[in-house]
Amino acid sequence: MTALDELYLTEKDVVTGKTKTLPALHPGRRSERAFPRYRPPPKVPWPSAEWEEFQSRTASLAEGFDWLLALPHHRFWCQVIFDESLQKCLDAYLSSAPRKFDATAMGDGARDLTPEMDKVQGRLHRGVFMTFLRMSTHKESKEHFLSPSAFGEIIYNHFLFDIPKIMDLCVLFGKGNGPLLHKMIQNVFAQQPSYFVDLDESLTTILQVLGSILETCGLASEGPQKLGERPRTTPRDMPLLDLADIILYLCDICVTLWAFLEVFPLAAQTFHKHDFCARLASFYELLVPELESAIKRRCREDPRLASDLWRRLSHSKKKMAELFHLLVQHLCLQPILESSSENIQPFVEEFLQIFASILQERRFLREYDALFPVADDVSLLQQASPHLDETRTSYLLQAVKGAWEEEEEAGRGSRGRRGPQKTPLPKGADIKTTNVGPPKAALEAMQKEDEVLGAHAPRVTGAELTSLISQVKDLLPDLADDYVVSCLREYDYNVEKVIHHLLEGKLDRLTTPEPTPLLRSRHNIFQDDAFDVFSTDRVDVSRIQKGKRSERTSTRLLLGDKSFLEAQRDRYGLYSVVAEEVPPWQEVSPSYEDEYDDTYDGNQVGANDADDPHDELLNRRPFTVPQVLRSKQHKGQGMEPEEEEEGEEDEEEEEQEGPKDHFVQDPAVLRERAEARRMAFLARKGPRVDPSSASGKGPSKETAPERRRKEAAKATRANHNRRVMADRKRNKGMIPQ
């Protein structure tokens, strides 16, 4: 059988009718069918004229690719090689088609396509992939094939494939088609080694692009700014749309490189020639903190755009860590697993060299260790290599641990960037390998290829939870810690999703209290009861009475309820059986204990002097049952006390007093002296005429009762019984004569 590049076909000319022989690959065999350029879905609301135009254009392209795939082998290659409209259409689709990470990182879907449009878009997507798949196959069958050398020249000279196209293919079709796409690209590189040279040059260009991003953000210039030099623009100062362009471009680059390296691992050696691992970590350390700070400061300008940029930046960070891991895996870990123990030492050394070059990049080291714990890789090395340098591995683990400790300190309140700190070498080389990063199970949801949002993240506590709270509060500092924890728990501890919903207004924003929270520090009369609204959010409203009660007798019924007195009656009844004093002649009870300390039994303390045996302060009154607890039986037996006037009780107490204190004067003598002085004063002043007697009338019948009532009323005021209490104090020697 003859290869297609050497095959000649004889055909009859339709115009002249003559027979002619031409090569199978000839421009004259190209069909005159134009392929319009692909355009992405419009951003305007549906339905509109733009959507109708998009639907018709997509349907036309889908039919065109179905027609192309149905062509015979030689006609297909003639159309692919010589039809410029087809090449432009394919280039437009690879560069403009919606990426998977657009829907994932932005959270709004590729576009809101109707089921019919989605079906047409999927049909076109499949047609483009099958076209490239057929273009990458030089042998379809025993009868239809191209020689390998001719195939390599055709695809290279006619630019059917190049490095940007191959990377775009990996981004668009890598999800779900990895093995088939890997076989495609491997065949292209195998048949045309010049693509490795192009890849080397492309990586140089990519590194230059990363450097230009740093220059645009004012992070690549060395030394202080010179006089007269144009002021450097930082992400915090540039317009918000320019900042958005940088982040979108960064996200596209990171996802594209990751997808390409995942599909085509043989490119890892070319990446390593450019020291890509160390440059990527340094690029991350310089740019990512500045972009995060810029988004936090600019989030008030456009909350929705800031939320989208934050999610894209988070997606870019994740992809940079995964790209680094792919390089480490293909350069070191995979060869260690596949090689014998005698040949793995160069790969172990390469692993240690790679991580030694990034130990000062603390932020990137934490990002990588969160997704791919370094301790697991070190454990693999310890199992595979019997001659592993424990000192170097211990130093590496201590550096990772130090990076996490810095993050924990920052979460406790020390804000701001901290410079890299050197981790001291351990004194001994027998330090055990431990997982110094966060738990691996807590990050399983982040391992999905094109998903930023986890599905079911486990419960997070400790330093990791503090770090998540600080990430949210860095962008939204007015939120309370408890509220942030509730939001994180609701969305499975996914910071990007929580920030997105907060900025979109889908969650109620609860701000932090004032610096001096008076409501929490001060107590009130309802403290910790059923109506304390400051300590609980739930109040039993059924216990709240609105307005005046309809039952007029409710108060009377409440006061008439004496059921509680039954329990109190028994309690007070016990006091009547208690022996207050034991007479000295009474025999000692059997329960008397010899251990009783009677040292101070004979001492009188305070004012309880034994100067007056009849003093009521020393003599207890007999126990009396309260009136409210007295039963009818007690009342019938005359247990109810007689109501006597206070003045009369005091006089009786004075009359019943025993012998007076000989060290003080007799109050009767003092009263006689006072009466004599008063009579002398009245005698000097002259006789006082009583108005009632002057009128010829004696005292009325109401005079005596009024005087008694007035005397009795003195006991109801604040200073009642002053005379009696004064005499009592004087008798005790408390008032000097």
3D architecture notes:
Helices cover 53% and strands 1% of the residues. It has helices at residues 49-69, 73-82, 84-96, 100-106, 115-135, 148-157, 163-173, 178-191, 194-216, 240-263, 268-273, 276-298, 303-338, 345-356, 362-371, 374-384, 390-411, 462-475, 481-490, 495-503, 518-521, 554-560, 564-573, 632-636, 646-655, 667-685, 691-694, 703-713, 722-731; strands spanning 8-12, 19-23. It has a two-stranded antiparallel sheet with strand order 1-2. With 737 residues, the chain is an all-alpha fold. The protein folds into three domains: 1-191, no CATH class; 193-221 and 232-437, no CATH class; 441-536, Ubiquitin-associated (UBA) domain (Helicase, Ruva Protein, domain 3), CATH 1.10.8. The chain is built from 29 helices and two strands. A hairpin with a 6-residue loop joins strand 1 (8-12) and strand 2 (19-23). Helix 12 runs antiparallel to helix 13 and helix 18 packs across helix 19. The relative contact order is 0.04.
By DSSP (H or I, 4+ residues per run), the number of helices equals 29
Mean pLDDT: 75
- What is the count of β-strands? 2
Spatial order of strands in the largest sheet? 1-2
Going by helix content, strand content and strand pairing, the class is: mainly alpha
Rg result: 50 Å
What is the first-to-last residue Cα distance? 148 Å
How big a fraction of the residues is strand?
Answer: under 5%
The helicity comes to: 40-55%
Rough outline: elongated
Residue runs with pLDDT of under 50 for 5 or more positions = 104-110, 414-458, 510-516, 584-597, 602-610, 638-658
Biggest beta-sheet profile: 2 strands, antiparallel
| Total domains | 3
